[in-house]
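Residues and backbone
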Amino acid sequence: MLYSHLKTNTLRKKANQQIIAYFKNTISTEHLQQLQIALNVAPEYLNRANDTIINTFGSFNNYLHEGLGLENGFVSEFRHQYVK
């Protein structure tokens, strides 16, 4: 999962450059730098999110059900369609 998450940086490179170009003359340099950070992904983002989920809910499965309020049927169908 980490590999596919990081691949986002490559796949969205052109789109992200267009977003930066669009805002270049309308926001401050500081905000532009923050936007560049927000448009990219890094391993520590996933690691931090996973740690928070485990510390708060005990497992990712508990997060899906208790944190997001998803029903078993929805989770099963989602996994069937999108998780390979």
